[in-house]
Q: What sequence folds into this?
């Protein structure tokens, strides 16, 4: 089979709407992408071809109409030695050597199904059902429809609950939770996520719980307590105060702080350790401490090895933010936690999207090695963090 014949086959499958997907792999040495997936999608009743291109474990999407479609497919095909074509009733496996393709065909029983581009995502708090606190807070109508201007907040709430759900499952598997789960929300603010957690634990998990939200702003706390009272939310209270001074509980199971500014995240971590928290979730914000301390100490090994950072403030600022959260993760591991650092929500919603998840393991694995790495990292930065 020649290259021309291979393209004619693809054009025929696309035009007859029998194509289900194309997978291009085994890239040429000069290829830009590691792998390419091509599939038909329907957007607002119009047919498109979606290209998903992979590079360095990341994927990039774009949709294309018919006008330039075959030229784009032809360019993509030439960059790979293998092409798998999955179509209605038949699969084709093409292997290219030079300009010639060797084809293997096999029958299948697949029927083509039109794929909607915007699939309805299953959320823990589903749209279509009126959820009392979302209605009260103006995210959702009384008919259960999410307002257009509130969709980013709605997705953020559901994404947050996915992390909560996975964390609670881990605590239950480790039998860290007994009759009741005690939860602290440090820097709760307007408490959209606190109310979401309450609803999730009561209506979905159906377990006993007690939640406390803490914030410095007295007017915000009064507002949250009023909402909780009007909604009839029991075992939920909001307190005005500083994280460092919190003494209402002596032990907790779960501490989280979302977008606590600068060292407020560090103080919430320290208080979580003091209260023997079994799980910690933190989405840090405005990590200024490392930036100021690194910038002040020009003689640190960091500047000796990577002086370019000192020349460009924005690069040093971003490096400092990542270094701060890497340090926090290492600090928690030295205190017996297994940590993960991951993306909280998409960058399009907020650039403050790093989440640190820590589950208490009860012991430190490879403690000597971790402590050595920890000390080397601090020496490299040339600073003494507040958390230390």
A:
């Amino acid at each position: 089979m020649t290259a021309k014949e291979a393209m004619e086959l693809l054009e025929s499958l696309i035009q007859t709407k029998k194509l289900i997907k194309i997978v291009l792999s085994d890239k040429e040495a000069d290829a830009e992408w590691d792998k390419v997936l091509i599939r038909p999608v329907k957007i607002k009743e119009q047919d498109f071809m979606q290209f998903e291109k992979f590079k360095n474990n990341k994927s990039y999407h774009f949709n294309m109409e018919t006008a330039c479609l075959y030229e784009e497919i032809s360019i993509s095909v030439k960059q790979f030695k293998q092409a798998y074509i999955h179509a209605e009733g038949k699969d084709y496996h093409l292997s290219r050597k030079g300009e010639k393709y060797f084809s293997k065909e096999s029958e299948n029983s697949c029927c083509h199904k039109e794929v909607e581009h915007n699939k309805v995502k299953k959320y823990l708090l589903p749209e279509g059902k009126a959820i009392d606190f979302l209605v009260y807070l103006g995210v959702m109508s009384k008919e259960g429809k999410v307002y257009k201007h509130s969709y980013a907040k709605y997705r953020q709430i559901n994404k947050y609950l996915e992390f909560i759900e996975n964390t609670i499952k881990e605590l239950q598997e480790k039998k860290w939770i007994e009759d009741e789960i005690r939860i602290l929300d440090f820097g709760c603010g307007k408490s959209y996520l606190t109310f979401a957690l309450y609803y999730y634990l009561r209506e979905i998990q159906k377990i006993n719980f007690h939640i406390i939200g803490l914030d410095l702003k007295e007017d915000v706390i009064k507002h949250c307590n009023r909402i909780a009272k009007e909604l009839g939310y029991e075992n939920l209270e909001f307190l005005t105060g500083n994280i460092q001074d919190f003494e209402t509980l002596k032990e907790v199971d779960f501490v989280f702080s979302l977008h606590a500014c600068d060292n407020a995240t560090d103080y919430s971590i320290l208080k979580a350790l003091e209260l023997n928290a079994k799980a910690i979730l933190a989405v840090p914000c405005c990590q200024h401490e490392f930036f100021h301390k690194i910038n002040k100490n020009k003689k640190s090994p960091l500047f000796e090895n990577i002086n370019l950072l000192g020349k460009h403030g924005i690069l040093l600022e971003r490096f400092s933010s990542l270094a701060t959260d890497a340090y926090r993760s290492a600090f928690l591991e030295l205190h017996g936690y297994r940590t993960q650092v991951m993306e909280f929500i998409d960058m399009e919603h907020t650039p403050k999207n790093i989440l640190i998840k820590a589950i208490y393991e009860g012991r430190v694995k490879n403690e000597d090695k971790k402590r050595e790495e920890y000390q080397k990292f601090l020496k490299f930065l040339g600073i003494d963090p507040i958390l230390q």
User: Anything to note?
Assistant: Residues 346-351 have pLDDT under 50 and may be disordered. Residues 322 and 379 are 16 Å apart (CA to CA).
